[in-house]
Amino acid sequence: MIPILLSLAPLLVAILIIGLLRKETKAIKYIALLGSLLPLAFVPLFAGQIGSTEAMNWFSVGNAQFNVVASMLPINFLLFALVSIIGPLVVLYSLGFMNVLSENRRFYIEILAFQAAMLAFSVSGSFLLVFIAWEFLSVTSYLLIGFWNYKDAANHAARKTITIILIGDIAMLAAMAILFATYGTLDFSGIISSTVQASTAALVLILIAVMTKSAQFPFQEWLAAAMEGPTPVSAFLHSSTMVKAGVFLIMLLFPLFIGSKSLLMAIAVIGAITALVGISNALVSRHVKRVLAYSTVEELGLMMFALGIGAYAAAVYFFFAQTFYKALLFFYSGTLMKVNNTDDITEMRNATRNKPLLISALFGVLALAGFIPFNGFFSNIALESAQSNMYAYAFMLLVDILVALFIFRWFFLPTKRITNRGIGAKLDLGYDTIPMSMKIPVFLLAALCLATSYLVNYVGDVAASMKSYGYAIASASAAGLADIGIETLLVAIALVAAYALYYRGKYAESKNRALLLAKSILGNRNLFNGLYYYIGMFGYYIAGAFEYADSELNAAFDGIGHLASAFGGAVRHIETGSVNLYAAATLAGLTIIMIAVILSLH
Amino acid sequence: MPSQIPDFYVLALVAALMILFSIVAAAMRKVRAQFAIAVIFMLILIARLVIMLIASDNYSALNLFSANPFSLFVSLLFTVGVLLVNILAYAKDASYSNFSLLSVFALMGMYMVAMSTSLVSIFIGLELMSIPTIFAMLLSKRVAIEASVKLFILASVAIALFSFGMVMVFGSSGSVALSGNVTTGLLALGALAVLIAALAFDSALFPFNLWVPDVYQGANTYITALIGGINKKVGFIALMQVLFLLFVAYKTTFVPIIYALAILTMFYGNLAALAQKNVKRMLAYSSIAHAGYISIGIAVATAYALGAALFQIAAHMIMFIGALAIVLFMESRNRHEINDYIGLHKENGFASFSLAIILLGLIGTPLTIGFIGKFLLFSSAVYANMLPLAIIGIINSIISVYYYFRVVSAMYSEKSGVSQMKMHRNVAFVVLACVLLTIVLGVYPNLLLGLANAAGTYLVG
Questions:
Q1: B207 to A589: CB separation less than 8 angstroms, yes or no
Q2: Which domain, by its residues, includes A586?
Q3: HEC assignment per residue over A284-313
Q4: ipTM of this predicted complex?
Q5: A302-332 pLDDT per residue, tens
Q6: N or C: which end of chain A has fewer CB within 10 A?
Q7: Is residue B274 part of a domain?
Q8: Of A476 and A269, the one with more pLDDT
């Protein structure tokens, strides 16, 4: 129970702020920072408890027990640590970023609640608790994405997010009901240690839930829309919270999926498609945060792909490494947006002005591209060497080069120098006055991008140690020298290409027709948004048809009612005639039940 | 156990005194005293019922009533509900006097249904409940005349059906006791069909529920809370008793019928709710959808499922009364449509927060009472190999997210030029009580769940 209670520490701080600090004060910021730091203090404590699970009865119906279980498997610990590290950095960054005092209180309350929800998720060992945390993540992310609710785009994005996420939540509820019927328990340990194979329906429902949460094709659009939230929220959401929850659930329940080859195949295919959709949009998008959002889509797709082909250890390491550089890049993008006062990367200028920041960002970019010796390099190597299939290997190489290409494009475009304009000089000043609280997280994360490379073996061991908890996981395959060479070569090619195209060349602004066509095909997000729109409208049409039928039937029976009232004075005063309809429906229903009853005789 | 019978007479005495005092106070036009009498006596009744539940009373009295885990639990539930509606109604002084007296009579009807041991007492109980309700509706507001006349005419169809069914039961087995020994034969089957139809009207199952939106929207809001929150639930209680205590031998016959009615009711309620613009009408359709969810439990017909259905009955009663309390508050400012709810969080943060919690509960969000209810219902269906029923229930839950969230997002949208709105003390009390119950029983459902499960076990043994 203790891990769960401790994971709620940030929430407790949020409640204290709600209760005690009614006014907007500067103190709120620092209290929030302290609150977000609390979980970090528990990490050493939990390190000593790895492997333990604790169950407590929540409610019971007859013989059926429903437990709240705190679980501290190695991967639970890993996620808890990640969220504990990123949380305070996000809050620290917000100190500088959220500079409108009147928004502070609400922002820090919501972000602390968001952190607590993810922490509770990371240590939950039963479906019941996972579902609750999952649901709280949905609600808090809804609040945070729509934080600037005076912007229509933010409201729209929040609505889109919650709509898609709730579909997944309800799929999860259905899966829980089925799993409970199969296993008689909702505790992960009980489900995983059982020899009974879970029904495909339950697994498909879990998969749907995961796909909505982790923005897998065709649900990926909410993640791109979600960048309407404040940048610290994006950094948190894309790196360690929310979207990671879906992939993490597959990791937790991996033994259930192993039994079904076709489902694993489906996971791999969905992941691959998601990765490609993410890449194609990231290649052409001009919005600084949208490129990163689509790159998250691509990364989540790759994690699913890795899990689908059974490369558990590679997926876990990728899951771990991605956290650091993605948070870093979002922080950097927020700074760029602030300084340049635009979100279009082709309009951003002179990023070279602030060298320490630029170099830190470069660390993140190189890590994302998979350049030696950054942490992304090792995850790419792990993913590539895990491929046993020629096509899958070729796919991985293609992904690697395209990812490197779009992230270098993203990096190079804002570095263009313009000094001869007056406005340019003004912009430069912006680079010099970035507050410390916005720089420190970037520096720290840049160091972590490099430092966590040396944790590759530790994280590999974490994944491998899951075996002793009943997880049937294939051993990670060792990478050869050839893999390292190929990877380095690919990234170098992409680097040179991006440099030539986007830094030196005028490719980005080209009006070449073939190029524009290619761009419009690659930037397919409008297609998906259109699709969502039509699916939504379809629902409304059905509802509309119902409404119409309702009123038309009423109108039709009005006529009959009038006719009837001509004959009998008793009903004359009931003008609408709908009573006749209702009574007729009652009698029709009775007739049908009568027929059903009599049929049951035979 | 004759030694426990005095318990029952004490209960009857308290109830009788409540009616007597209420009549006297009404005759003396002391509205305030009437309110105090209703509240105090209902609290005594609640205490009495709790004591009887703790003592696990199980016996019959006067050959007409029976005190058992089932009847005591549902009586307790309805007393709490009527008490809440009374507090709500007192916010509107003008028509409270009539309502209070009539609701006390209706409560007696509810007890009669809950504790009945024969079809006759169910019949009388249902009438004792619905006729005062219709009168209360008629007397409360001029525009409700149409709604009340509609309800009256349709209710008389149901009365006719029920008495016809009762006659057929008597004709086939020579008794109207709820004893489970109905003789087989065509006559008994006919009785089953007719009684299901009559009680489907009382519990608002499709297609016996087309009148619901009109009546709910047309009636005064606290009366809607009474009808939708409690009266329709009494219909379910009667349905459960008739099916599981009388026609238990026909389980294979009635299960498919309730199964089909549950599916139709869920779809009808949820799909029609999607298109609504008026909040009260939307809640009417949503209560139809919940009637569908509850009947999942009856269709599954295990002790677990009936416990779940009874839990959901309690859950919906609490959330429905809470939601309508806020509708009442908004109506007093002449705001009825979903669009009128825009910007509510600035005008009255308590109202918008409470309604948001209650709507989340109606969706079935965890840590609310609605989650436990829906989760138990769906899992009971899966448990009993009725997977399609669970999946249809879940699909319907997905549909419902849309219309509930329209209200939530309207409330939390920005509007310019807002001013604070004060909520009447009584309305605020009811809202607070419902929200607290929604959360507390969602976090700690064991107590209610234990009672509901014992009641369900009593029905199917």
A1: yes
A2: 526-599
A3: HCCEHHHHHHHHHHHHHHHHHHHHHCCCHH
A4: 0.74
A5: 999 988 888 888 888 888 888 999 899 999 9
A6: C
A7: yes
A8: A269
